[in-house]
Every structure is written in structure tokens, then in C-alpha cells.
Hints:
The complex is a heterotrimer of chains A (294), B (365) and C (264).
Chain A: H1 17-45, E1 47-50, E2 54-59, H2 62-69, H3 71-103, H4 109-118, H5 125-136, H6 141-148, H7 160-185, H8 188-196, H9 201-229, H10 233-238, H11 246-256, H12 260-293
Antiparallel strand pairs in A: 1-2
Helix pairs in contact in A: 1-12, 2-3, 2-12, 3-7, 3-9, 5-7, 7-9, 8-9, 9-12, 11-12
Chain B: E1 2-13, E2 16-27, E3 31-35, H1 42-50, E4 57-62, E5 65-66, E6 78-80, H2 92-102, H3 107-120, H4 136-148, E7 154-158, H5 166-183, E8 186-191, H6 194-200, E9 203-208, E10 211-216, H7 218-223, H8 228-233, E11 238-246, E12 250-254, E13 259-263, E14 272-277, E15 283-285, E16 292-301, E17 305-312, E18 315-322, E19 334-338, E20 345-351
Parallel strand pairs in B: 3-8, 3-9, 6-7, 7-8
Antiparallel strand pairs in B: 1-2, 1-4, 4-5, 9-10, 11-12, 11-14, 12-13, 14-20, 15-19, 16-17, 16-19, 17-18
Helix pairs in contact in B: 2-3, 2-4, 3-4
Chain C: H1 6-29, H2 47-54, H3 56-89, H4 95-103, H5 110-124, H6 130-154, H7 158-166, H8 171-200, H9 203-208, H10 216-226, H11 230-253, H12 256-261
Helix pairs in contact in C: 1-11, 2-11, 3-6, 3-8, 3-10, 6-8, 7-8, 8-11
Amino acid sequence: MNAAVPMPATHRPGTARAPWLLSAPAFLLFICLLLVPLVLTAVLSFQVFDHASGVKNSFTLSHYAAVLTDDYYHRIFWRTFWISALTTFICVLVGAPEAYVLSRMRSPWRSILLLVVLAPLLVSVVVRAFGWSMLLGPEGLVNQAIRAMGLPTMRILYTEAAVIIALVHVMLPFMVIPVWTSLQKLDPGVENAALSLGASPFTTLRRIIFPQVLPGVLSGSLIVFGLSASAFAIPGLLGGRRLKMVATVVYDEYLHELNWPLGAAIALTLLLANLVLMLSYNRVLERSYKKSMG
Amino acid sequence: MSFLTLANVSKSYGATHAVIDMNLSVEKGEFVSLLGPSGCGKTTTLQMIAGFSDVTAGRITLDGRDITHAKPNSRGLGIVFQSYALFPHMSVEGNVSFGLEMRRMPNAERAERVKAALALVHLEAHAARYPRELSGGQRQRVALARALVIEPPVLLLDEPLSNLDAKLREEMQFELRQIQRKVGTTTVMVTHDQTEAMSISDRVVVMEAGRVTQIDQPHRLYEHPQTRFISSFVGKANLLEGRVTANGAWATVDLGAVPLEVEAPGLVAGDAVVLSLRPEKIRLVPAGRGRLDGTVRQRFFLGSQWLYQVATAAGELVVVCSNDGAAPAEEGTHIGLDWTAQQVRLLPGARHLAQETAPAQETQA
Amino acid sequence: MSKNGPIALLFNAFVIAFMMAPLVIVCVVAFTPENTLTIPTTQFSLRWFRAVFAHSDFVQSFRNSLWLAFLSATLATVLAVPAGLAIARHSFPGRDFLNGLFLSPLIIPHLVLGVALLRTFSLIGATGSFFWLALAHVVIITPYALRLVLASVAGSDRSAEQAALSLGASQATVFRRITLPMILPGVTGGWLLAFINSFDEVTMSIFVTAPSTVTLPVRMYMYATESIDPLMAAVSALMVALTAVAMLVLDRVYGLDKILVGHR
């Protein structure tokens, strides 16, 4: 996520005491409850775990080894990866055009419908996941419609499909927002200029608008992928006991197996993968920004 | 007796020098403008007087008191900011009474003073409105009332008219001057608009690249600019370069094709000089009857004036004639240009080519 | 603005329906008189809502969530306002670092935070403490408060503060009477957004929860993994209603579109 803040218009360079004093309370809290815990978790991930006596004080790489070599974890990571990738892909296919369609509407529909698409962000993910479990269950609305069409009941709940559908629902706003923002920055005259020079609406879309919206699409993809990979409530409620993703596996290790070091190792691997992905994506993003903005 | 004095005031940001060695004495009740292009240091000077910018060197004295390092909330100056800086969450009345509140004035007296201030700027009817409900011109008046109600020793105006449209700007210029005359407050105004500066100031301080280049009354500044920059920044000027061929009380300057006479003692034959002739000082006469002949290349109608670009042997000259109802000259006509000899000015800074020893010196006022 | 064709509008309708579906179904099923998850067609009943209020666990969790959200949103705002002023107004060494640090919880998976805080709490004996759980929430929701405060400060007129100074106000008076009122929409909006996010939070809370501090979303999650009945639907409907109210207030105070999409 791009955390850059624009430079203040009137600023006093040099005196650093006042701003550091102002930021001190928040800084203190973040050190104690963000940085320190992360460090402690990193340390934990290297500690030995014994089923009988718990966490020991000796150093081991066995947890990371397990994560990297054990087939079970490979499958979990792979499943998490392709589910997240597919979710991201669908969000791009649906979210970007939706943002475009919304941007071309007249007010008041524009703002109203935009709010309708984005407001679910403020509702707890548990509520939304539960709603989908109701819709996608064997007696749910979707299957009722399927049966009405003469087809046999489809098993959607507790499969990857249910997880993906619910993930798309939760992640779609995160794609719509950056694409919408990109579209807002477009000079409206550019589209008209292209048309006046003889381009068809489709060509205009493909060669003028899309390249400028691309940074928004990339930025949204990054957010969607990262959030999907670490999703917990949705695979928990819609994946069932057998369909595990990284977050639910960590939960198992922590609360059922009590193997905290292993759970820590898995969680940190996820964090690392996230960071690596973000950094490399950021570089792609920068290059595409430079191309589209000149 | 100077009321507000800047003595050798300088401001530097590391290697950048925004204001260099500024000296200024403002008399009580005077209206002084700091005039110059952007980046010349005029706004920085104002900020130093107000206390929002530290002074790197020099002293600022107000009514005998050294305020160089005084905090901005203890100087008691009245300031009108370029963006007006009204408090958006307070009504007009709230804005204007704020300064009096800070001075712990009792309610009754405060209300009286606020009413008087609003009456001064003709906004009594809008006391309960909020800034967002007012037009640009009205906001500017509120800012003025807010600055004047505290009866400050000095009023500082930072480009007060630059955000207004042309017509309004003209009206406000005169109103500003009227109010200032009425209240008698010493005023320092910063502007890049030379007509603004000249029309309402008692004196104009021209600044260029951090330095003061000339301080004069508007009329003198216009008629006797001391540098080439000032002569073209303040009003339009025809600048003619040439070499002195004959000297004396009146020197003859050879412009390459044509000689010109200029009232300038002290020149030496061989000097390279720049002459300045204002467009409105030139009259159009039939060809052959003036000092110089030329062809009208282009003409522009400016409402109250006609502007001609005339090609002559001395180069292209700009001539401005008042629109007195007479038929204007057509493009392509051969025409004569005439002027009173005394209207040709010599810009200081002649290069003594005949000597070729010392490098050219630019004199700065 | 060129118009959308019929295909575009149809597509849009599908997306809208898709986004509304789970929320609508939850609210509708909550009114069923049956014992199972069915859509009420002829009869509507409030029995499940009554059941929610009679269910002591849910009521307790609801109270927990409310107090927790209130406390952590207030703390987060109190921390975010000075930090926001510092970052938006001054350029100083470490500015970008601080800005990144305070916004980082947005990109760190809540899963990782939950795991990390669980470990930390167990080491310092803070498990089960309402206060420490609130602090954990503060870390997660500060970015939301901070972003709005930053936007508000960046958009405020600095020269108004200078004007107040020139009129004789002290620094404290300037902050109290000029700065704070000018940034108040951002501060209040930030508080509300932080509140909503704390109330909704489940992933981190599930790791750090203890029997005495179970929040509503955590309680709902645990309930949903065991039994699925209309009680869950009723609780969900109540949460949707609460969110709707919060959204209305947020819109009034700051502008919902500005919060979700940012300033134009």
C-alpha cells in the first residue's frame, strides 16, 4: 500500500523535536504492541516445541523446515495461493469494469451505487461469510434456483468455490476503490480527444483509458491478493474442517495443537511472502506509473 | 521620524539568499508598497516584519521598540493574508472580534468596535454570515476589518487584491486607499502588480532578487527609473541601445541608423548607453514631419487607447495614443514619430567603451 | 459524460445484486418464524430477535464489543491527532518512517498480528485483560483514524492559524479555537471509522480472546462453526442495522464517499 504523504505546503524544516514529541505516544504504543510482538514471534518460531512440556528455550529450524518441505503445508500454501490468485483475477474482471461503468453514470446514481458497492466494507466479515453460507448451502437460495432449473443440487458450500465467491464479495471494494480513484484522475477531455481523432469507443477504452487505469488495477490486485491469502473467517466458515488455508492452519496449530512455534513459523512465512510480493509488485507499479503518467 | 525601520535586514536559507541587506524607513501614516516579480523577496520581507520568518541578520524597529525577535502573537500588527485566512468555523462577527477577545476586551466595548469596523468596510449587514457564504470581495473586506479593528500600529497587506477579478480589483484599490487615509494606519503592502502599487502608494519600494533597487514616489519611479529592469517592469518602455557621439549638456547618441538627443551631462564620447522612451510620450505625425519615420506594422485597440507597433530605422517602437475619436492610423501606413526631447531618458549604467579598462558597473540604488 | 449501454447497466445490476445478496438474505431470514434457516414468505416473526436478547452470551459479547470499540476508538483518535499534526505539518527526519509505521497495520495480516499479540500477552500475563485487548485494537484501528486526520490537517488553512497568532492568541489557544475546530470533521470521522473497524474485527481478536473478553464477532464465529440457526441470522441482522446507523452518522459528520474513496 502506498503510504506516501504529500509534503506539507508550508513546513519548517529542521526542528525535529516538536513533531517527535507529538508522535511519541503513538510511537511508543506501536513499538510495544507491534514491533516487539513481531520480534517475539520471530524468536518464537525458532524455538523447540515438545508435545509434553510445551515451548522450550532451545533453537531449531525444524518448524521452517517443516513448512518448506512437508507436503501437507505445500498443499495448504498452494491452495491459498491459487485461491487468492483466482480471487484477484475475478476481482479485476468484475471490479475494474464496474468502476468504469459507475464513473460514467449521472449523479445521484453514481454516488448511491458506489456507496452500495463499497458500504459492505463496514459490515463485519463474519456477517458476510455467514450470509454466503446461507446462500450457498444445500438448502440455500442458489441451490433452490438450480433445482428450479431442473438440475441436481450442487455442492457449493465447503468447497473452494464457496470460499472464492465469498472472497470476491469481500475483496471487490478493494479493487473498485483504486480503479475508481485512477478514473477520477483522468482528464475527461482525453476520451473526447481520442474520439474526435477517429478512434472507436472500444479502441479508446483499450488504448487510452485502460493504460491510465492500469496502476489502479495493479494496486488493487496487490491489496486483494494480500488480504485473500491471509483471510481467516471466510475459509473458516465456508471451507469447513477439511478445506484449510494458511490462516486456519495457523489457528489449528495455535489453539488445538498448542504448537505455537510452528504456528508462528507459518504466520511469518506468510508475512514474508506478502512483503516480497508487495516489493516486487511495487516495482512493476512504479514502472507502469512512469509509463502512463510520462 | 521613522515609525517602522528595517536596518540591514537579511534572510538566508542555507546558501539561498532571499533578502539581502534591506534598508527601509516607513513614516507614520505612510502607505508603502513592496513591488517586484515573484521570488524577489518581498513576501519574505513581510513575513519577517510579521514575525513568521526569522531574521538572519539586521534589526526591525517599530515605534522605537526592537521587534526583530519578538513572537508573532506579541507584535500586535494587523495582517491581511493573500488567501484572507478567515476562520471558517466562525461568523464574520466572530472573525472580526477574535483579536479583541485575545486582548480581553469586555463584551460591550468589543461589540461596539466590531460594529464600527464592519461599517468601515460596508459589511454591517453580513455580521452573522459565515465565510463560505461570502464572495471573494466580501471575504477580503472581512479580513481587512479583522486586521483594522485591533487598531494596529502597522497594517501588513500580502497581495490583498490578487485573488479578485479585474473589475473588482480596481474598485478595491481605491477603497483600500480611502480606508487607509481615513484610519491613518501605517501600511506596508506587497504586490507584483505595478499599477496597483503606483495607484495607491505614497512610496514604492522596487525589489529584485532580494535587493531593493529603487525607493521613490510612484510618479518619480515611473518617469525616472534607475535600472533597465525597472523601466520595463513599471510601465512599458522603448529601450534603445546606442553609442555616444557628442557630449555636453545634451549628448547625441548614435542608434546605428539614426542619431537621438538626450539631456544627459557627464557622458563621454564612445560610451555605450541605453535610452528609454515611454510609448505614450510619442505622437503620430505625418511622415517627414517628426524626428523619426516609420511604418505601422501592427495596431491593437485597447478601448481607451490605440497601441501601434511601428518599424523604424532605430528598431521597432511601441506607440500608445489615446482614443480621442480621431481616425487611427492603418497598418502599413508611413508615419512620422515625434516627441518632446526631454522625454528621452538615460538609464544609468553607461559602459565606458572608450576606456575599456574597468568592467561595466551596474549601479544599484 | 458518455452513457452506459444496456449491457453495462445489466452488468452493473448483477454486481449490485451480488454485493447486496448476503446482507439482504441475512436480514430477511432473521424474521423467520421457523426453527431452521428459511426465508419467511407468509409469516414474519421477531422470535429470534427475542432469543438474541435472551441469550446472555450474546448480550455480554455485544456489551464487550461496544465498550471495547468505544475505548479503543477514543484512544486511537487521541494518539492520531497529534501524530497527524506532526506528520502533515512538519518535515523532519523520520517522517516517512513514522507515517509508514502508523499505517502498517493496514498491510500486516491480522492473522500475524493476532499470533504475535497472543505470544506477547501470554508472556506479560495480559491474557484476559480487557485493557490490553483494547490496546491491541488501538494498533489495528489507528491507521483509519490517522488517515482521516492527515487528510483534514492537510486540507486546513495554515494561514488562519498565523492570522490568529498575529491577533495575539497563544499557541494553546490557536490549537483549541482554530486548529481543532477546523480539523474536527476529520477527527470525528476518524473516530467513527475506527469504532466501526474495532467493532467488526474478528481475526486478531479470535487469537487474543479469553472467555471474559469475547467480542461479538468472535462469539458469532464460534457459534456459527457449531450450529447454524436463525439466531445467527438475527444477530447478523442487528449488526447490519448497527452498521447502517453508524454509516448514516459518518456520512453526516464527514461524508461517506470521502471516507471510502478519498478526496477527489
